[in-house]
């Protein structure tokens, strides 16, 4: 998948890289390589593969080392993402809908429950705004 990091460059995430990122996005704290690998559901590849995945994510600037800490008897790195899941989603949107208003309206319609007209979309958006203001 294509995302842009904070440096405005674009890169692709493989499915394994995306799986690792999802684990990092779900965590409130930096994680070790082992914690990341163990957090990937239905992982079919060996835990040792996570090191090369993390190196690639570092090169792409999708993650960074948050700290170096003692893990067991040795020291290890803890990682955190440099981009949020929401930023990732927005970048995916930008990738597919680059300035095409009709496609954007179509996607918004689908997200709001298949509203067909501009009026229905506007009404659904207004309802969301009203709910947001009440919170």
Would you mind describing this structure in some detail?
- By secondary structure, this protein is of the alpha+beta class.
- It is built from 6 helices and 4 strands, in the order ββαααββααα.
- Strands 1-2 form a two-stranded antiparallel sheet. Strands 3-4 form a two-stranded antiparallel sheet.
- The longest helix is centred in the C-terminal third of the chain and has 17 residues, at 118-134.
Strand order of the largest sheet: 1-2
Outline the low-pLDDT stretches: none
Mean pLDDT: 84
SS content category:
alpha+beta
User: What proportion of the residues form beta strands (DSSP E)?
Assistant: 15-25%
What's the story with the biggest beta sheet? 2 strands, antiparallel
What Rg, in angstroms, do the CA atoms define? 19 Å
Task: Quote the distance from N terminus to C terminus.
Answer: 34 Å
Shape summary: elongated
N-to-C SSE string, H for helix and E for strand: EEHHHEEHHH
Q: Enumerate how many helices there are, as a single number.
A: 6
Helical residues, percent: 40-55%
How many strands?
A: 4
Offer a quick outline of the entry.
The protein is an alpha+beta fold and 135 residues long. The protein is built from six helices and four strands, in the order E-E-H-H-H-E-E-H-H-H. The strands form two sheets. The chain has a two-stranded antiparallel sheet. Strands 3-4 form a two-stranded antiparallel ribbon.
């Amino acid at each position: 998948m294509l995302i842009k990091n904070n440096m405005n460059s674009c890169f692709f995430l493989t499915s394994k890289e995306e799986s690792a990122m999802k684990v990092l996005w779900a965590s409130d704290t930096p994680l070790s390589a082992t914690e990341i690998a163990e957090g990937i559901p239905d992982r079919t590849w060996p835990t040792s593969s996570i090191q090369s995945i993390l190196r690639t994510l570092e090169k792409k600037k999708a993650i960074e080392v948050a700290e170096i800490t003692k893990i067991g008897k040795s020291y290890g790195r803890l990682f955190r993402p440099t981009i949020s899941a929401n930023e990732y989603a927005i970048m995916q949107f930008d990738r597919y809908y680059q300035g095409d208003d009709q496609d954007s309206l179509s996607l918004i319609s689908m997200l709001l429950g298949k509203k067909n007209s501009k009026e229905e979309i506007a009404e659904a958006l207004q309802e969301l705004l009203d709910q947001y203001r009440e919170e």
